[in-house]
Amino acid sequence: MEFKFTEENLKRVEEAISRYPEKRAALMPVLFIVQEQNGFISGEAMTEVARILEITPEDVLGVVTFYTMYHQKPMGKYHIQVCTNISCLLKGGLEIYSAVREKLGIGNMQVTADKLFSIEEVECMGSCGTAPMLAVNEDYFENLTKEQTEQIIESLKNKN
Ligand code: FES
Q1: Does 122 contact ligand 1 (Cβ within 6 A)?
Q2: Is the pTM of this model over 0.85?
Q3: Which residues contact 132 (CB under 8 A, 6 or more apart)?
């Protein structure tokens, strides 16, 4: 399906481009705008971003696949990323990851039937000093226990 920025988002794209000496440097902020508008970054959206930034769709794909914050398929309203890299692993990261999977009944990169939650096991998110951690969309939760993890999920469920 064809992807077009909304008028408002097109202005945000232009504003992002104006902050850099070269159009291509705005790729990451522009991809965030795509994801905000669409929920994920489709092939059509990558083609449109490439056209606007005057780069190739392969350049865009390279960035989308490199960074875990970009999604190529629709994720849950609350996308939970659990770090299981070394610092988190040593401080119980796998237990946190299991707690999230058990609580939601889904596996890595899956979405709950009500589309509220999705899970992703990720590499270091730069919060090693406060391991173990997880992120719900852009919000970090650190120094976690299994119980706190379950409470976080419960409180998100209760918001809806
Ligand atoms: S190892 Fe988990 S945040 Fe760095």
Answers
A1: no
A2: no
A3: 83, 88, 91, 92, 93, 95, 96, 143, 144
Domain 78-158 indexed as CATH 3.40.30.10 = yes
Atom of ligand 1 nearest to the CA of 88: 2
pLDDT band, residue 138 (cuts 50/70/90): confident
- The closest-lying atom of ligand 1 relative to the alpha carbon of residue 85 is 1
Residues 61, 68: Cα–Cα separation, whole Å: 12
| pLDDT tens by residue, 68-125 | 889 999 999 999 999 999 999 999 999 999 999 999 999 999 999 999 999 999 999 9
Burial of 158 (0-12, 13-18, 19+ CB in 10 A): exposed
Cα 66 to middle of ligand 1, angstroms? 17
The encoded tokens of residue 52 equal: 């606007």
Any idea which fold 7-66 has? Arc Repressor Mutant, subunit A (1.10.10)
110 C-beta closer than 6 A to ligand 1: no
